[in-house]
Amino acid sequence: MEPLYLDHAATSPALPEAWEAGAAAHREAWANPGSLHRAGAQAALTLERARREIARSLGAEGWRVVFTSCGTESNQLGIQGAARALRKRVERGAGGRPARVLVGAAEHPSSLAACEGLAAEGFVVQRVPVDAAGIVQPEALLPLLGEDVALVSLQWANNELGGLNPIPPLVAAVRRLAPRAAFHCDAVQAAGKRGEPLAALGADSIAVAAHKLGGLRGCAALLLRPGSAPPQPLLTGGGQEGGLRSGTENVMGAAAFAAAAQWRAERLRREPRAYLDRRADLLALLRAVAPDLVPIGALSEEETLGSILTIALPGARARTLLSALDAEGVQIGSGSACHGSGTAVSPVLEAIGLEPALRNSVLRFSLNGTETAADLERAAAALRTARAKAVVARA
Fold this sequence. Notes:
Elements: E1 4-5, H1 16-28, H2 38-57, E2 64-68, H3 71-93, E3 100-104, H4 109-119, E4 124-128, H5 138-141, E5 149-153, H6 167-177, E6 182-186, E7 205-209, E8 220-224, H7 251-270, H8 274-289, E9 294-296, E10 308-312, H9 318-327, E11 330-331, H10 347-351, E12 362-366, H11 373-394
Parallel strand pairs: 1-11, 3-4, 3-5, 5-6, 6-7
Antiparallel strand pairs: 2-8, 7-8, 9-10, 10-12
């Protein structure tokens, strides 16, 4: 039997539509899009078509799409690039006080590391507290805002817990109380999995990545709101992407990204509850085989991405269960795959104040939105068997 893969928050396998679009670009648009001959023009045309399709499919028509290599690069361009571009103006307006950067306490490691880099340059970096579900509520952000804030960086969906930050009211608060600040949103985990258009978030820059929604690794983008101040580039050289990201563009990856984004948008239109219903069904099945499980993260649908279900199993070790589940043919995760070996305690679990006894017992099931009822039942049965084997092994 083929393994059941339920770790789509780490990466999702490329869709057939993405492979086909990428292969077509490889055959027909293989040239450098910066070249002035006919082959180069064909590559440039393919790249621009992909750019427009990504913006349309993700609900950001009219936004500038800057291609990057990965979500980490998109976040760093949106965070460090914007903060550096705005620093002098903000510090002048704040009477010479050092510019501040606000970042959510439960953000992805790429965002937190980008902010740490700014702290080394003299920015004052402050973390915005999250609630027990890992969500930044407006009342937590409001006291930190002021005229000396250059950047606020908050993710749309938490990559470990699946909780949704209420981005539009958070953006509104920043516009009102920190009018010189840019707002960056990491939507890498949520893009293609929510029906709301990205433009409705109201952020100045939004990071997205192809491999989270069925495209190819090695291609991502930073979406820039019309009228927003452009970030200072991190990579300089040939001046590609309008000078914001030098380096020969990944035409094949962009074409595959566009096809995957289009597929996701159409599927959400056909089945808007593709994730939420499967998550609810999976939780019920898991509770039937493990009544003592503790759901981690948001409980209400309004605050839940839908593709992620995170639980803790008291008395169990996540690493042991992951291996046992893999042996049963079910592949899941435990926290962010970007933490490398996964041996360190997740900063997200620390930020939400999860009791220490549960921190090494956390499992993350992440869905593709196409799982059948039999798939979900198989996952629950595998957990029951894996836990039983783990108990026997300890005895």
